[in-house]
Amino acid sequence: MAQSSPPLLRRLGAAGPLLIFVVLFALLSVFVPDFFGVRNMRGLVLSVTLVGTIATTMMLVLALREVDLSVGSITALSGVVCAVVIASTGSVAGGVLAGLAAGGAVGLVNGLVIARLKVNSLIVTLAMMEIVRGLAFLASGGEAVSIPAERFYELGSGTLLGINYPIWIMIACFMLFGVLLNRTVFGRNILAIGGNPEAARLAGVPVDSVRITVFCLQGLIAGLAGIVLAARITSGQPNTSLGLELAVISACVLGGVSLAGGVATITGVVIGVFIMGAAQNALNLLDVPTFYQYVVRGGILLAAVIFDRLRQAGGLRLARRAASPSPSQSSEKGSATA
Amino acid sequence: MSGDILLAYEGVGKRFPGVVALDAVSFSVRAGEVRALMGENGAGKSTLLKILAGEHRPDSGAITIGGEDRIFVSPRDSQAAGIAIIHQELHLAPDMSVAENLLLGAFPACAGFIRRGAMRARAAGILARLGEDIDPDARLGDLSIGKRQMVEIGKALLRDARIIAFDEPTSSLSARETETLKRIIGELRADGRAILYVSHRMEEVFALADSVTVLRDGRHVADYLDMTRLTQDQLIAAMAGRTIADIYDYRPRPLGDVHVEIDAIEGPGLSAPVTLSIRRGEILGMFGLVGAGRSELLKLIYGAERPTAGSIRLDGGRLDASSPRRAIAAGFALCPEDRKGEGIVPLAAVAENIAIARRNLADRRAPFIDRPAETREAGEMIGLMRVKTASPATAIATLSGGNQQKAIIARWLAADARILLMDEPTRGIDVGARSEIYAHIYRLAEAGRTILFASSDMPEVMGIADRIVVMRDGAISGVLARAEATAERLLRLALPDAAPR
Hints:
By secondary structure, chain A is mainly alpha-helical. Chain A has 15 helices and 4 strands. Chain B has 3 domains: 236 residues, P-loop containing nucleotide triphosphate hydrolases (Rossmann fold), CATH 3.40.50; 164 residues, P-loop containing nucleotide triphosphate hydrolases (Rossmann fold), CATH 3.40.50; 75 residues, no CATH class.
């Protein structure tokens, strides 16, 4: 029975997000005016860079069976820190480094508390979400900090080979973390810990250091995204990216990353990010009022979570079927014992 | 002394994947009788109780209650028929009060509101009958385990159960609480209830029971209806007596020097310091009943739990075993008892599950995975251990228990482990896969690997080990060479209260 072909649900689990994306994309291209065009496509890709960049490390966090709610606040804090440093020292490099350091530091605190003190990541990062948002307001004095450095804006609006830097950065993250997840011992350890933390520990996986490193990476990448965002809006905004963490988690879950841990693919995350982006883009093109957009976005998240649940139930059924042997097997054992 | 037959098992059979838990068991208990149920771990006592409790349904046969055929489909069904089971693991709500726990499911209420006064009065009445000084308003979780057990017994009294089964009740009771329990059982007997009493303690069984039923390997071995003509020796012989099947195929080998020395190690789960030495290539069996401390000792050696005292020496040199990673670096490996919870990464591929330990060896610093090499190695290991899987990429959760266990052993061979700590490696595994695993273990030992083989299955330990350490209540109670390890001796060392000789 174990030798049969991979069950339908598992195969659907892998191909599901792609199928949804293709259908959605085709429908939007046909029914939404101006959707399928070079200009709009470019805008669409640019619009997903913030969520897409952070989703790469959120993928690692979720694969680890953890969650990080502080990324929206980290994005705001690193943008503000970067702006303040540039405004006061005039050094763009200094500002970028300070922004990255701020993000990495928050991630490190998250990781240390979660891994060493064994506190639930949902609670830790919920608290950090509030604390870091507060720090962003404190650092900025409660107002937007404008950045007096034209050179810095290039990071947000400049292009290479006709493609904007934020898109390059997102692509680089996709590639970097895709390789990290699939090709490195570190990446496979993340999946093993998410799949069964105790089994991973007893097999010699350095569980704590993997957890700390993953949260640190998440902080760094959220910080990077915050700096790029600051460059795009030419200022550090303490109240930016409210609710960003939920959009990022939604994108990951839409892309087939399991909230139960241990299951994640970078292609899935890319598809999830673009499902979200395409839906948002179409709503804007159709001039749907913001109030409805909330409902639609929430609906997409709900659908994603239900999808995840159905897939897990499929996996569970699978495991249960494997655990109970076929009647012929048990009778054979019976006679052997008797 | 006794009245009519109140409870009868009639040809009750029950099968689980890989084992026959009960094979056509028949016996009956009369009103006003205390019947002790005895047998080793795995003899089928718990399954008998679970069928009575409505937690399992028998595959064949039936239970009769007061002459009426009954198969309970749920615990509620069983309770409604006047049956109460006092479980070893207590089914109580720690954050509720004692009174609430006692009356849970039967709160005195008026229009949906609980009548607190009535509830407290009824709870206080029961507690007084138990003779226990327990405040009905106390939070249950604040009570000692023994007192909680008394609350559980109080629940049975409150429900006015006709048939009461106790599953090793005294394992957590103090001497005084044990006396109270004996008094209550006496009262229940005088009151014409039927009582089933599961225990490993000889002294208790002789003091309390009117009769004994002995089970072995899921089969009914004997009923002793007259305790005055029964001796401890007879009882132990009945529990142990069986021949060892030759699926073990013991292979004598010359053993090497002392490989691992455990010196006065102490830690959670142990009641006394443990000292052991194991020779290279030796298979050291570790026998004990459930809860004797076998798993705890293995985890202390492995660094999965921190020892509070003592040391481990490897080939004469002191070993820092403060974490599994360090133990693995020194050549140790653990095949955990809870295969599903601590052994496998269920949704990951068989190949991943095999490769995980080798990848993480502390002296390997390569960040990238060498896929072709790993795939080749996994293929070799799967062939060597004869793991039956569709492909190395199949999720390990879809494999049978025996094949999962072989994959875990393969994991440690790939990591070149030299000392294997195996905790119940054949639990839930059918006979065919078992004998394969035994053959692998001999092959490993012949290749100079050292093996600690912990099991609560006595014939298995006797069949495979060169030497047997017996544990009881968190300490070593004896070490027997293969030649002197008889079933009686092992049981005497493993059972509490059995006089050693």
